[in-house]
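Human: Not sure, check this?
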Amino acid sequence: MPINSSTESSRTVRRTYAAFSALICAWILAWMVKVYLLDPHTEWLTISGGSFIYWTIAKVLIWVLPALWLIRSSHRSLREVLNFSNWKGWLGWGGGLGFVIALINFIPRYLRGNHILSTEFSIPLLNVLAIAPIFEELLMRGAILGGLRRGYSFWAANIVSALMFVVLHLPGWYFIGTLVENLKRPVGGAFSIFLLGLAFGYVVHRSRSVIAGMLAHFLNNLS
């Protein structure tokens, strides 16, 4: 018996919510394992290189693999989500938004006489500039936003996914002791993450490519 499109769309939305809930639980567990079990007994995990390896593996298992499954289960392909061929779209929208964000950050820094960019390479910088934009956008805009779009209008799905984007950051803030600070800060905290989530979702929507979100996210983190 064929399944009508409305039923399938509802299933996709429910599957997206369920997967994200399970993902957050797994993400909290990953933090607990590192902070309470591994760090006190494994010194190399407390240095930048060891921590980078741990979190990269954790993100692949907890973010990337579920993202690929959600994309597949919503009857889309990774090629469709990335849409490399529409390079003008993702370069224009993602690069355009990222350029505006970079100017907003660079100009005040320049006027204060500070360095505009980091003057030396580091492993945490690699995480901020490469791992975070690719993994977070694949999950949040490629899988989550794309799944919610099956049952909601774009703006409804974008608002919900932007809120989920904030939730994704909460465990890390809690375990490093900055949760209350980031929830209260009007700039640079939860509210800024929410606005960035909306902006990244919009450029992905307009360009029909999650690469636009990755590019804008990269330029935001760079600045």
